Amino acid sequence: MFTGIVEERGEVVAVEQLADAARVTIAGPLVTSDAKRGDSIAVNGVCLTVVEHSGGSFTADVMHETLVRSSLDGVTAGHAVNLERAAAVGQRFGGHIVQGHVDGTGELVSRSPSPHWDLVRFSLPAHLARYVVEKGSITVDGVSLTVVEVGPDWFTVSLIPETLRATTLGLREPGDRVNLEVDVIAKYVEKLAGPHLAAEEGDHR
Fold this sequence. Notes:
- It catalyses: 2 6,7-dimethyl-8-(1-D-ribityl)lumazine + H(+) = 5-amino-6-(D-ribitylamino)uracil + riboflavin.
- Lumazine-binding repeats lie at residues 1-96, 97-193.
- It comes from Actinokineospora diospyrosa.
- It is a single chain.
- It contains 3 helices and 12 strands; from the N terminus they run E-E-E-E-E-H-E-E-E-E-E-E-H-E-H.
- The chain folds into 2 domains: 8-85, Elongation Factor Tu (Ef-tu), domain 3, CATH 2.40.30; 104-189, Elongation Factor Tu (Ef-tu), domain 3 (Beta Barrel).
- The protein has a 6-stranded antiparallel barrel. A 6-stranded antiparallel barrel has the order 7-8-11-10-9-12.
- It has helices at residues 64-69, 161-166, 184-203; strands at residues 8-17, 21-27, 40-43, 46-54, 57-63, 80-85, 104-113, 118-123, 137-140, 143-150, 154-159, 177-182.
- It is globular.
- With 205 residues, the protein is α+β, with helices and mostly antiparallel strands.
- The chain starts with 7 loop residues before the first strand and ends with a helix.
């Protein structure tokens, strides 16, 4: 589990394309400072497992399902990525519950800079829109953000200078793909409440 508070901006060192997967090596001195084989590190919001690490970098396997669902299918050497180690028990919980399981991808539509923040609009897949609410939480490329406005196929967020400096969101331009993870609590509530709501609807017919 993660919190969506990016620890450092790393860089893709190498990508090895396999038959139905990819193996990526990423430089991240901070997140590898205490890394062990089998540890989880979120890369642009995707939970990956460390299989090797040395010299301030780590290697992870990216399965076909992950490549299909996320923007990691397009990373190449030199790409900047957001990195976060799995949350430790007892630490401050600065963001929200992030699983590192990407629900889909969106696209940066526009950004409106101001002296103190950037207002950024992203496209939103229609099947995810019901989980996104005004002032709710959403994860964009592994960054925990608060939704400003939401429409049927878009949402906006405000990015403060620290977020622009410390994450790849300060580098993104219109047309760039981003990984999206909606609030998992909303999905559980929908599944648990669904049968009861359907039963009530049947009773009123």
